[in-house]
Design brief:
Helix content is 41%, strand content 15%. By secondary structure, the protein is α/β, with parallel strands linked by helices.
């Protein structure tokens, strides 16, 4: 393993911030399968964190920890204030988004387009570091549009590290801000893991994590030979069962992984509490659709959750009904 930065080294695996996906219900679900992975919120715009409904936007349960808040913005003063708000809420870390390629993000002059203004990103990090005592990190791309990734990534990394960033998570693709949709930006630009490895090789005393296209834990283990941490995105969301083996495989933990039947009981109790507070079952179950990927009966599990959970009167009985369709095959999800 490469040398790691002590105060951040425990986070060798994280679950990426994903808009419309990694809400508090998703994070609670993921936390039942791994005690050790660092979980990220969806991106919250700095203005919203300062002026919006903070409990709705930033609220989370203590049981989600360790959990990090990702902020979007490009104004150092506003980001510093939003970071203070996040720290006061109890987040473990504040992360700055320098990787999202969506049109909405570009119009606000933040996200991946900030790769073009590394001095501004460094100023934002410096302001955030001055505002909070918890780690401040950055998630970026290797470059955007016609930038040379060799120059762009080194420049961005050098600036934010000099400004005090505690870690840099790198999505190992360029972002094309013109001509590709956000969805296409997740697949079409080629992955260049070697570029991130080279960055780490030149920054041995700083935490560098990698993200992008990583599907299984065997791949995670391979990347950890070259970098300090791995961030899983869509793989963790669409196939959350892979998280069940994370603590044993990556962290050497000896506690028994959660049994599937117990996981279902926990999520049923959680869903019923959410419904009692005025929520809908589907707010919870939409994150559970992929739990039994590849297991016989998974199609019926998905069908029941997708249709029955949408009813206005749906409760946790829908989850139990869907689980019954898996039956004795459920044990395969934990293997």
């Amino acid at each position: 393993m490469p040398e790691q930065r002590n105060k951040y080294e425990e986070f060798k695996l994280s679950i990426a911030p994903m808009m419309d996906w990694t809400d508090r219900h998703c994070r609670f679900f993921h936390r039942q399968m791994t005690r050790r992975a660092l979980l990220y919120t969806e991106m919250v715009v700095a203005d919203a964190a300062i002026q919006g409904n903070r409990e709705r936007l930033l609220g989370f349960s203590a049981g989600e920890h360790p959990v990090a808040l990702q902020l979007g913005g490009s104004d150092p003063v506003k980001l510093a204030e939003a970071a203070r708000v996040g720290a006061d809420f109890g987040y473990r870390e504040i992360n700055l988004n320098v990787g999202c390629p969506s049109d909405r993000v570009q119009s606000g002059t933040f996200g991946a387009c900030l790769m073009k203004t590394p001095d501004l990103v460094a100023a934002c990090v410096e302001a955030m570091k001055g505002a909070v005592d918890i780690p401040v990190t950055v998630k970026c791309r290797i470059g955007v549009d016609d930038q040379d990734p060799e120059v762009a990534l080194d420049t961005l990394a050098g600036g934010v590290i000099d400004a005090g960033a505690d870690a840099l998570w790198v999505h190992a693709r360029k972002a094309w801000l013109q001509g590709l949709s956000p969805k296409e930006n997740r697949d079409i630009p080629p992955l260049d893991y070697a570029r991130v490895y080279r960055l780490k090789a030149g920054l041995q005393s700083h935490f560098i994590g990698i993200n992008g296209g990583i599907q299984i834990l065997d791949e995670v283990v391979g990347h950890l030979d070259h970098v300090d941490g791995v961030m899983l995105g869509r793989a963790a969301y669409h196939n959350p069962g892979l998280l069940i083996d994370v603590d044993r495989r990556l962290f050497g933990d000896t506690h028994a992984p959660v049994e599937i039947a117990i996981l279902i009981d926990i999520m049923c109790d959680y869903a019923d509490r959410h419904i009692a507070d005025g929520g809908r079952l589907s707010h919870v179950t939409r994150h559970m659709i992929g739990l039994f990927q590849g297991v016989p009966g998974a199609r019926r599990w998905r069908q029941v959750l997708s249709t029955d959970a949408a009813r206005s009167d749906a409760d946790s009985g829908v989850i139990r009904k869907a689980f019954a369709e898996i039956g004795e095959n459920a044990a395969e999800a934990a293997e």
